[in-house]
Each structure stands twice: as C-alpha cells, then as structure tokens.
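Board notes (copied after class):
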Amino acid sequence: MPAPSRVPVPGTLFIKAYAWNRWRTLARQDAVEAQRQELLKLVRRAERTRFGSDHRFHSIGNVANYQVQVPLRTYNQHWDEYWKDSFPRLQDCTWPGLIPYYAVSSGTSSGKVKYIPCSMDMVRSNKRAALDIFVHHLRNRPNSRVFDGKSFVLGGSTDLKEQAPGIYSGDISGIAAQNVPWWIRRWYFPPASLTFITDWEEKIERLAPLALQEDIRFMSGAPGWMTLLLEKLAALKGEGKRIKDVFPKLELITHGGVSLNPYRKRFEAMLEGSRAEMREVYPASEGFVAIADRGPQQGLRLIADNGLFYEFVPVEEIGRERPTRHWLGTVETGVDYAIVLTTCAGLWSYVVGDVVRFVDKTPPRLLITGRTSYMLSSFGEHISGELLETWCWRRRRRSAPR
C-alpha cells in the first residue's frame, strides 16, 4: 500500500516562499545604507507630529542632522514631555495617528509601570521580525517540517486592559496574540482559553498535561519558564528528563528576554539526543532588535530594515551631558554600548537600558552583554534572570524529597 501523500498545511508554501525571498534580500543587504534609509523614512512619517514640529524634522536630511536636533531621552522624559498630558489618547503626538496599544512594563527598580506606545506600524514590524526567525531556520534546514505540527508560545497573559475606547494595554505577547493572522492560528498552542492566565505557576500546571497531547515542533519563551515547563513535562511523561522524550519531533527553540547562562547546563542536558536547534532572539517591548542567524553564542544579526533605527553610546559615557552617539556606520567590534532606539511607534533616541557588543559588522551581529535597567521581552518576562534563577532554585528545594 503506497504511503499517503503529504499535503502542505495552508500557508506553509507561502511562508517558505517568503523565507527564500527574504534570505536573498538579507544576503545582499547593505545594513548601513538600510539604517540610513530607515531613519529618513521614520523622520518623514513623523514630520507633522508634535514631536516632529518641535525638532524641525523637515530640515533633517542625514544621521548627523538627526543627532544634533534630537537629544537622547529616557522613558520618563518621553512621558513627562509628550505622553503624560494626553495619555491614553496619543494622537499625532510622537507618531502619526492614534496609538492603539501600550506594552506594559513594570521592570524598573522603582516598580513604576511603563506604558510603551505600540502603533499598528510596530505590530507589523514585530510580525515581520517573527517571520525572520523562520527565514534563518529554513536556511539552516531546507527540509524542515516545523510547520507540520504546533508552535508552543510560552508568553505572558494575552488579557488586555481597555484604557479608553479602542485603546488597550498589556503584555507585548498579548498585543501580538490579538493580531495573529487567522491562517497562522491553527499552528498555535496553547488554546486561547488558557492564554489569559497571569500566574506563571498556574499556567505551567495547566498547560503541561495538554502539551503532552500535541505534536510540538517549535517552542519559544524565556529560558527560566521554559526550563520549569520542560521539567514538569518530563515528570508527567515519566520517561527520562530530556526534550526528545517529551517532544520527539521538536525542531526549533527560541529564547530571549533574559540571559540563557543561568540555565545553559540544564538546557544542554535536556537537549541531549534531540534534533531541536536553539536560536536566541532579542525582542523588547520597544521593538524587535535581532535574531541569531548562526550557532549559539555567535552573535545575533541586527534587523536593519524593519522600522527601527539604532544608536549606540559607549557605556562609560552614559550620564555625560553630550555622550558620543554612534550608529551602524560608526560602531566598532568589541566595545560595550548602551543601545538606543528610534521606532515606528514614536520613540525617539530612546535609551532602552541594555548593553550590547558587536562581534561582526558585515552583517552586523551583536551579543547582549548586560543591562543598565530591566527589559520587558515579548515573552512577558518582568524580572531579572538572576531573580528568576533564585526563585527556581528555591522552588526545587521545596519540592525535593526529604
């Protein structure tokens, strides 16, 4: 009896065709020129906003003009000078149109909640960046069958709060979930009814038994929570402590938000014998910055053409009145820089709080080497990796047999 033919899942052929076209674009891309054009596009789009008028965007014709006319700003400066009085209805303020979403972050030492504007342009930017993950995966594995099963996205709560009619706030992963195309939803796990859970322990307890019933081919999340989930799955499965025993057809694991280093040995032990590859990503609530296009710890490729313009300030100059502001055309490898973002959601030379170091310039690849403050990732990670590791250790101690 002949084997049944393999029928492509709707959308698979589109994604694969997109991936090969995108890869050809990236292979010939001049990232410095892409960044120059990206900045000018952002400036032209925002010329008629209040911010654009205040900073004479109409007269900006190059990177040097921009850096003279637009100073570095923190979140508090954006908030106090431009957002506070009109929040939550930011209309033509720092970005044209009405801001429909805010990514909520409580990741500051003061505990103060941040509301990071997220425009529809940013929603589209994040979608394109997410597709780039599969671009790099399919380039590495042309015969991939990652789309033949489910994608397990271990993110924050998708429950959004309505701040005003038609304006919502919540985890960036919740904003992304609200805008997933219908034809992609069939690949998604968990079911929508469980994505609203805010308590991480409850979420893992509820999701683990259901996940064992699924053919999971792709997983993404913050390392600490994925480690706990996989350990829970292995315990329920009762067949070893490795990923291959839980999800034998798993192909791809993406991680980001906090460093993998506190969990690396446990991950490597669990990955033994698995065909899954790990790919680090750098998604922040301010924008999706970079994706690993090579092996672990070999650098993340900066996304140069997707609605973000990057600046880099030497760490030792942070706090100076006029720090040196590099961009992709002037950075050097081996130097620790504080990363600064200008985005298609109306952040202008915004000091994110992360420290990066370039390992390559053509194409640009970087490592995340530290933080000047906490970062909110697209996986709903609101605490530092060190704190999470301490929490995991205490939890294992409490549950260990005596």
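Comment from the instructor: The radius of gyration is 21 Å. DSSP finds 13 helices and 16 strands in the chain.
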